[in-house]
Amino acid sequence: MFWTPLHAYTLIPQFIVYAVIAFILSRALKDKDLETRLLPLKICTVSLLLLEAAKQIMGVVTGYSTYWIPLHFCSLFLFIHPPACFYKGKHRDKFILLAGVVSTCLFLFMAVYPNVIYSDDAIRSMWSYLTGRGGSFFELHTVLFHGIGTFTFFLFIFQGLAKFNTKKDVPLVILTYGLYCLIVGPLAQIIDTNFNNFVHSNAPFLENIRLNIINSAGAVLGQTVYVLIISAGTILVPLLAYFVLRALTALFDQNREKRGEQV
């Protein structure tokens, strides 16, 4: 099931609120310099870093699991968004673009298949933890982290933060996510930790494909083929996200131009 009723009850209102807040912020900051316009994204980025620090500390205190190592797909927020926000060198536009792509990837997954990001059990556990009825801090982290990450997508769209040069951007996206797959894909097998679904898939239809390949080709070759399939998807989805981000940014840029705002 791509969506559950609980996902619908919680995510659809979130998307509406995120869009409204991002629109209001874009209007309030429209005539400001880049550093000021980046302030909402900076706050989100610092919040993600603090959440992750809390998770790592909690993990050490309660008993650490390798699953908490920040090498998941969405952990890229922790490595790409900080330089996008705080690095001021000549490559800053590249980091801002990559941050926009990461944010768009997360939004697409949350809009199409939120159940693969976190389950409705995670939502229930989060509420139980917040209300002191048990639950798990780690589920709270999961829901909040992805919620804040999804909000950053709306900031990119409404504020028009990313700049585009497709001939240079496409190789950059391929290289970035290719390197991620090259590093994390093998490491996931070595330490048997399911980063980015490299070990097995949380999506039942993909897991069936993995098992069928292993049954046909053997464990080692079959798993290798599966990792290559996941790697291909891990590169193709950000490429799709790039073009979605570019198209939506252009659309909102046109609307800003009609209102006589700077683009």
Describe this protein's structure.
This protein has 263 residues and is mainly α. Helix content is 75%, strand content 0%. The longest helix has 40 residues. The radius of gyration is 19 Å and the shape is globular. 30% of the residues are buried. The mean pLDDT is 94.
Class by SSE composition? mainly alpha
How many beta-strand runs? 0
Number of helices: 10
The span between the termini is 40 Å
Instruction: Note poorly predicted spans.
Output: none
- The fraction of residues in strands falls at under 5%
The helicity comes to: over 70%
Which whole number gives the mean pLDDT?
Answer: 94
Please trace the helix and strand order, writing H or E for each element. HHHHHHHHHH
Compute the gyration radius: what is it? 19 Å
Strand count, sense and barrel status of the largest sheet are:
none
Inertia-based shape: globular
Summarize the structure.
With 263 residues, the chain is mostly helical. 75% of the residues lie in helices and 0% in strands. The longest helix is centred in the last third of the chain and has 40 residues.
